[in-house]
TrEMBL record:
The species this protein was found in: Pseudonocardia hispaniensis
InterPro entries, alphabetized: MFS, MFS_dom, MFS_Efflux_Transporters, MFS_trans_sf
Transmembrane intervals: 7-24, 44-68, 75-95, 101-126, 138-159, 165-184, 218-239, 251-272, 284-304, 310-333, 345-371, 383-405
Classification via PANTHER family: CHLORAMPHENICOL EFFLUX PUMP RV0191, PURINE EFFLUX PUMP PBUE
This protein's name: Nitrate/nitrite transporter
């Protein structure tokens, strides 16, 4: 498969694999209350499903980055699709809590193999100037998998039932694995192949070098600060919060997930173009996304529930910008690391947001349990309102990390002969000297 058309076909198949992976990842978010009834799970136990899924996902990011550098994207994406399909099949048939937990662990493991592998395909098949925009498009179009969860999967769940919904999701995963096996290729024909497989010592040294790179750590804190709130909302607690905490119907709550996807699609191309045109100002975009997210949540939590519908729509739209904002973290990994260790660097960056999401998912579940022990009693407007405040600790840590890592990255750039002028100086220079 060669030429301009070939790269778009390869990218499209990788994108579909990621889109279906997002469907698998977020499927439990629309099934949370159904799972509570099916397995008799209290809030803290219910959050444990997603916590374990995220724990596996986040914990595998660095090893997957190493495997990506070693085996290539095609092998990892096929393996990930089949692993997630196995998890969904097991969840559909599970009648006990332990089997359901194992199922979500499988989904987390397969999910971990997918996204950074698809990003490596983008980097191999497109020019460096196009990569930031294509990365945004991949991440955002892939979030359409949330619509597959919120609409057809939810319809199956509340129609034919639990087993039909998750077995159907498993079948879709198998179909995707076949398409990837047939079409996806790690690099264009004629592109240089890695000379040899690195030794274990070289792999460890590559990880150390990637971590010592200030740009990698800047990417990690970027991903952590921008991504976690939307992930927690979509993956676990958003739909229960909108239904039990804000009094919305299940259909209306699922509709807000569609708003989440649409707002992300609108923001993504602009974020990607900004990143490509102003690589020295990427961090200001990151800081703006975090600041807007904090402001939106603060406005919602200050209003006694139920909040006005327009305010909830605004919250969801702002949360959607976290996905495009987190893509900037991967751009840091790409531009601050040589090609032979980009898999490891991207794995480190991707760890940030999902580790933060894991901690917040667990903390919200624990807070709901404290607010209302004994199961469903925790799903009250007041309990949700208190539980969401745990996010502020993570935002403070992420902003501190972004500012500290940015300072170190700029010092390194200056030492290498590429000083970054302060924003106010750059803006003054662009306006030119004042004239009387």
């Amino acid at each position: 498969m060669t030429g301009h058309r070939g790269r778009w076909v390869v990218w499209a198949v990788g994108l579909v694999a990621y889109l279906v992976g997002v469907m698998h990842r977020t499927s439990f978010g629309v099934a949370g209350l159904d799972a509570a009834d099916r397995f008799g799970a209290a809030p803290a136990v219910l959050s444990g499903f997603v916590v374990l899924q995220l724990l596996v996902y986040a914990g595998l990011q660095v090893p997957v980055g190493v495997l990506l550098d070693r085996f290539g994207a095609r092998v990892l994406v096929v393996t990930g699709a089949l692993t997630m399909a196995a998890g969904q099949l097991l969840l559909g048939l599970a009648a006990s809590l332990p089997l359901a937990i194992v199922a979500r662990i499988l989904v987390g493991a397969g999910d971990a193999l997918t996204f950074i592998s698809v990003l490596s395909v983008v980097g191999a098949w497109f020019s460096p100037r196009r990569v930031p925009v294509m990365t945004q498009l991949t991440g955002l179009l892939g979030q359409g998998g949330q619509l597959l969860s919120a609409l057809p999967l939810a319809a199956l769940l509340h129609g034919p039932g639990w087993t039909t919904a998750f077995v159907s999701a498993a079948a879709l995963g198998v179909a995707v694995s076949i398409a990837v096996l047939v079409v996806l290729r790690d690099r264009p024909p004629g592109a240089p192949v890695p000379a040899r497989v690195p030794t274990s010592r070289e792999i460890i040294e590559g990880l150390r070098s990637a971590w010592r790179e200030p740009g990698t750590r800047l990417g990690l804190w970027t991903h952590a600060g921008t991504q976690f709130s939307g992930t927690v909302f979509v993956l676990m607690w958003g739909v229960p919060y909108l239904i039990a905490g804000q009094g919305m119907s299940p259909a209306a709550a699922s509709g807000l997930l569609a708003v989440f996807v649409g707002a992300g699609l609108l923001a993504g191309p602009g974020f990607g173009e900004f990143t490509a045109r102003h690589p020295m100002r990427r961090s200001w975009l990151v800081i703006a996304v975090i600041g807007l997210t904090v402001a939106a949540w603060t406005a919602v939590l200050l209003v006694p529930p139920p909040a006005p519908r327009w305010l909830l729509v605004l919250l969801v739209a702002v949360l959607a910008t976290g996905g495009p904002g987190s893509m900037v973290g991967f751009d840091y990994a790409r531009t601050f690391n040589p090609g032979y260790r980009q898999g490891a660097a991207v794995g480190i960056v991707n760890f940030g947001g999902f580790a933060a999401a894991l901690l917040v998912t667990l903390a919200v579940g624990a807070a709901l349990g404290v607010a209302g022990p004994g199961g469903a009693g925790g799903y009250t407007p007041g309990a949700f309102r208190a539980a969401w405040t745990v996010q502020y600790v993570v935002w403070a840590m992420a902003l501190t990390g972004v500012l500290a890592a940015r300072r170190r990255a700029r010092r390194k750039l200056a030492a290498e002969g590429t000083p970054v002028r302060p924003l106010r100086v750059a803006l003054a220079a662009r306006r030119g000297p004042r004239t009387s």
